[in-house]
Amino acid sequence: MKITKIETLICNARMRNWVFVKVLTDQPGLWGWGEATLEWHTRSVVGAIQDLETLLVGEDPTRIEHLWQMMYRQHFWHGNGIVRGTAISGIDIALWDILGKKYDTPCHKLWGGAVRDQIRLYCHLGGGKMEDFYGAKPGDANRFAELAQSTVEQGYTAFKSMAVPETASIEGLRPIHYAEACVAAMREQVGPQIDIMVDCHARPSPRMGILFAKALEPYGLYFLEEPCWPENLEDIAAVQRAVSTPIATGERLVTIHPFRELFEKRAVSIIQPDITHCGGLTEIRRIAAMAEAYRIAIAPHNPQGPVSTAASLEFGFSCPGYLICEAVHQDVPWRDEVVNWGFSIQKEGQLVRLSDRPGLGVEINEDAIAKHPFEQEVLQRSFNKDGSVTDW
After folding, report:
1. What number is the average pLDDT over the span 326-334?
2. 331 forms bridges with which residues in the sheet?
3. Separation of alpha carbons 42 and 33, rounded Å
């Protein structure tokens, strides 16, 4: 069996273009689906996949580790940049889908079989704007509370929000009080049995990150995500040591190498590699094996399209340290039109059951994708009050 072609199919889903990767073989009807979605870099990723295609056409798609090494190493510039890493990831995911289909078995069985019967999903409430804050009862706090209640009514037992606002490197108490009011409102609304996560989006400086973490500690967060730039691993470790709240990071780290340093510094309780960026299923399994040695949990970043979700779930069913799966459920109303799912979801608790379909357990509807062609994403722009650039 040989690879004959690698196609990319673009589907615009509002804030991001889903980049689906289709690896075709010389066996009729046998292909694999991957995903290489990287918002605001769609053209770059498609070009990188086209470059890698020249390495792979004519190769045996079942030699996945060998092909991964080729994609990563055989162009002098190692594949540890975000664009190249995303391109490798999309192809790698599709190769595992092919292997499962070839042997008519789900991917999790290729990796040793299921270690759990179900996976819990969590959803994202989005963020707020601190200009709405006028004291102890900000408008956003009420909005977060309403969204939290709606999410629980949909069956979720866990959700995440961006209650930490954009901040300058050092600010006064206003942003701290804002975040605290929003999280307090959510906790009061849903009670102690629901797990609440807060994504700082790496907005704070290291010192502000500690202030936010300490202010939110009394609310029993499931985890606090990216309290400062992921490049500052020592500072993330300092935040983790300052509070009892589990700290999470990793969605912007590519390949195993930065994760090794993260583990050595005991910087986090939970890692969040993104399967569509970090190097695909091949690399995330290496990362997870190393995390297991440090007893660090894994909850992959997954705000992209349905193939990314399928890959995260198949991986999760085989990974002992897998904690929970991020799920996007309200980005576009037609999300389920582009995919035929093999997984079943129990609404109460938002629990996903094992799929017995081969490979990743999904097929993509190319006619549905064609209804939503590529559109240029609008780049986010965020500034401090003085006009300087800030992280959004």
Report:
1. 87
2. none
3. 17
User: Could you report the per-residue pLDDT of 51-61, keeping only the tens digit for each?
Assistant: 999 999 999 99
Tokens (6 digits) for 250: 């990793």
Reduced to 3 states (helix: H, G, I; strand: E, B; else coil), residue 43 is helix
Calculated CA dihedral for residues 230, 202, 313, 124, nearest 10 degrees? 180
Q: How many CB atoms lie within 10 A of CB 329?
A: 13
Task: Flag the least confident range among 223-227, 237-241, 326-330, 349-353.
Answer: 326-330
Distances (CA, A) of 302 to 35, 310, 336: 11, 10, 16
Rounded to an integer, what distance in angstroms lies between the CA atom of residue 226 and that of residue 207? 13
Give the active site residues.
201, 301
Tell me the C-alpha distance between 339 and 107, whole Å: 18
Query: Among all chains, which residue has been given the structure tokens 């990314």?
Result: 308
Residue 251 and residue 301 in contact, taking contact as beta carbons nearer than 8 Å: yes
| Residue-range domains of the chain with CATH | 3-107 (3.30.390.10), 109-356 (3.20.20.120)
Q: Can you tell me the distance from the alpha carbon of 387 to that of 356, in angstroms, rounded to the nearest whole number?
A: 54
Sign for the pseudo-dihedral over CA of 187, 300, 86, 360: negative
Quote the DSSP letter at residue 169.
Answer: S
Contacts of 259 (CB under 8 A, 6+ apart): 250, 253, 271, 273, 287, 290, 291
Q: Which residues does 10 contact at the CB level (< 8 Å), separation at least 6?
A: 17, 18, 19, 20, 42, 46, 369, 373, 374
Output the six-digit token pair for 92: 């790698």
Nearest to 59 by CA among 21, 23, 33, 84: 23
Amino acid at residue number 272: Q
Confirm if 154 and 122 have CB atoms less than 8 A apart. Answer: no
Are 124 and 160 contacting, i.e. CB atoms less than 8 angstroms apart? yes
Looking at the DSSP bridge assignments, the partners of residue 303 are none
Which residues does 43 contact at the CB level (< 8 Å), separation at least 6?
none
Q: How far apart are CA 172 and CA 135, in angstroms?
A: 14
Give the mean pLDDT of the chain.
Answer: 93
Which tens digits make up the pLDDT trace of 93-115? 999 999 999 999 999 999 999 99
Asked if 340 and 362 touch (Cβ cutoff 8 Å), the reply is: yes
Contact, 143 vs 189, CB < 8 A? no
